[in-house]
Design a protein that fits this description.
30% of the residues lie in helices and 30% in strands. By secondary structure, it is an alpha+beta fold. Strands 4-3-2-1-7-6-5 form a seven-stranded antiparallel sheet.
């Protein structure tokens, strides 16, 4: 009988703590930036979770681990759906935007976002004139 009371009290305490945490997060509002998965350089390496921020006049990609990637002069060169292999690493309902940044000799990066966030990402990183059809 004592064990049952202890389990019930433990569950009630855990529920109370989780509810407090949820209420604190809800009061803080949505997180800044666009949630995404990032592969840098494009076509190589692993997909890493991160966020894209479009403040201060230029976009930057901040992976969950590693250094932020500023995207000066960034242009979206292609928008596509993930392949079956990529769909195992990222959400298969997402869209992959390939971006070129820097002055011609800059790098490329792939940013995967959910379809509902695609327009917001393309506002932060405008499309180039030579974009391939999706």
């Amino acid at each position: 009988m004592i064990e049952i009371v202890a389990v019930v009290l433990g569950a009630a305490g855990a529920g109370w703590l989780l509810r407090r945490k949820h209420l604190r997060r809800a009061a803080a509002g949505p997180a800044a930036g666009i949630p995404c998965m990032v592969r840098n350089p494009a076509g190589a390496g692993r997909w890493r979770p991160g966020r894209v921020y479009a403040d201060q006049g230029t976009a930057r990609c901040v992976p969950g681990r590693g250094d932020p990637v500023p995207l000066p002069g960034g242009r979206a060169t292609a928008v596509r759906a993930p392949s079956v292999k990529e769909g195992m690493s990222i959400n298969p309902g997402s869209r992959i935007v390939t971006c070129a940044y820097g002055d011609g000799d800059g790098g490329t990066i792939e940013i995967a976002v959910m379809a509902l966030d695609l327009s917001e990402l393309l506002e932060a990183i405008p499309r180039s004139e030579t974009e391939s059809p999706s």
